[in-house]
Automatic annotation (TrEMBL):
<feature type="transmembrane region" description="Helical">
    <location>
        <begin position="58"/>
        <end position="77"/>
    </location>
</feature>
<dbReference type="GO" id="GO:0016323">
    <property type="term" value="C:basolateral plasma membrane"/>
</dbReference>
<dbReference type="InterPro" id="IPR050363">
    <property type="entry name" value="MIP/Aquaporin"/>
</dbReference>
<dbReference type="GO" id="GO:0016324">
    <property type="term" value="C:apical plasma membrane"/>
</dbReference>
<dbReference type="GO" id="GO:0015250">
    <property type="term" value="F:water channel activity"/>
</dbReference>
<keyword id="KW-0813">Transport</keyword>
<keyword id="KW-1133">Transmembrane helix</keyword>
<dbReference type="InterPro" id="IPR000425">
    <property type="entry name" value="MIP"/>
</dbReference>
<dbReference type="GO" id="GO:0015254">
    <property type="term" value="F:glycerol channel activity"/>
</dbReference>
<dbReference type="GO" id="GO:0015204">
    <property type="term" value="F:urea transmembrane transporter activity"/>
</dbReference>
<comment type="similarity">
    <text>Belongs to the MIP/aquaporin (TC 1.A.8) family.</text>
</comment>
<dbReference type="GO" id="GO:0051289">
    <property type="term" value="P:protein homotetramerization"/>
</dbReference>
<dbReference type="Pfam" id="PF00230">
    <property type="entry name" value="MIP"/>
</dbReference>
<dbReference type="InterPro" id="IPR023271">
    <property type="entry name" value="Aquaporin-like"/>
</dbReference>
<feature type="transmembrane region" description="Helical">
    <location>
        <begin position="163"/>
        <end position="180"/>
    </location>
</feature>
<dbReference type="InterPro" id="IPR026252">
    <property type="entry name" value="Aquaporin_10"/>
</dbReference>
<keyword id="KW-0812">Transmembrane</keyword>
Length: 323
């Protein structure tokens, strides 16, 4: 990549000429990612709403969202590349880390995973939802249950303010993720990237969830909204909140673009032109008087990293390249 970003958990993206098998495998992994994400996140929301706060609250729902992201990345990140959000996929396209033609394909797969996850949660909490709502599936008003599945604005929130909310939240999310996965930035110990991203999502949910539930994910919002449309909530899921439905789709994509630009101009372009690879953050245990023979360089095991490092997996295993 000309920007020098090399996500450490983008392990299996391949080149634009990927085989059908590779594309199919990564698409299935992306589907699993969103399915797990939705089942955990929406279950926490359903438990909170249907128990009227006795078995969950805003904090527990936010924590579940962060843990869901972490678990989903661990489950599918090694195959799908950790595409936790269409906005993140757009960011990778902007950074030449992901082919543009895959963007709509992944969005549809993510949408399907979110839709199926919402359906699973509806079946899981079917009795609880209908008991709480007295058998009437409402989008607004007392005992509404549509907010279990998709985001809706608070009564005081205007469309412009809500749009800014989503742009800002997604922009911060993208800046944080890019900082976490940037191999030229301060390193996170291997394997802790998903935890760091999950904590970031948790922090955003806690800090910016009051206005419109901190959607910041087009597929996570639209997939369940489509499910509620056909499951009995009806067309009001699109008309409620002054036709709010399009904001969690358009605003996060703009926020991802803004966040990517901010990271590039604020951080990435200020890296040294010929940087030395950062040292291993976990110090080796050496015996007294023993010299450290070699520092392993930070190379990322993916085909896109090969384009800008000039090396591949073999060089990673063999040690630093010759000067």
């Amino acid at each position: 990549s000309p920007f020098g970003l090399a996500p450490r958990f983008l392990l299996a993206e391949g080149k634009e000429g990927d085989s059908t098998r590779n594309v199919s495998g990564s698409s299935q992994a992306s589907f699993r990612f969103f399915f797990f994400l939705q089942v955990i996140t929406l279950s926490a929301s359903a438990q909170n709403v249907t128990s009227e706060g006795t078995k969950g609250n805003f904090l527990s729902s936010s924590l579940a969202s962060g843990v869901a992201v972490m678990v989903a990345v661990h489950v599918s990140g090694g195959v799908s590349g950790g595409h936790l959000n269409p906005a993140f996929s757009l960011t990778l396209c902007l950074l030449a880390q992901f082919p543009w033609w895959k963007l709509p394909v992944y969005f549809l797969i993510q949408l399907l995973g979110a839709f199926m996850g919402a359906g699973t949660v509806y079946v899981l909490y079917y009795d609880a939802i209908h008991s709480y709502s007295n058998g009437t599936l409402r989008v607004t008003g007392p005992r509404e249950t549509a907010s279990i599945f998709a985001s809706y604005p608070a009564p005081y929130l205007s469309i412009p303010n809500g749009f800014f909310d989503q742009v800002l939240g997604t922009g911060i999310l993208m800046v944080g993720i890019l900082a976490i996965i940037d191999a030229r930035n301060k390193r996170i110990p291997p394997g802790l990237d998903p935890l760091a991203v999950g904590l970031l999502v948790f922090a955003l949910s806690v800090a910016m969830g009051a206005n419109c539930s901190c959607a910041i994910n087009p597929a996570r919002d639209l997939g369940p909204r489509l499910f509620t449309y056909i499951a009995g909530w009806g067309p009001q899921v699109f008309s409620a909140g002054r036709c709010w439905w399009w904001v969690p789709i358009a605003a996060p994509m703009l926020g991802a673009t803004v966040g990517t630009a901010l990271y590039q101009f604020g951080v990435e372009f200020h890296h040294p032109a010929d940087p030395k690879e950062p040292e291993n953050p976990i110090p080796e245990k050496l015996e007294l008087g023993q010299e450290k023979k070699m520092d392993l360089p930070v190379y990322v095991v993916n085909t896109y990293a090969e384009k800008w490092t000039g090396t591949g997996l073999e060089s990673y295993l063999a040690g630093p390249p010759p000067k």
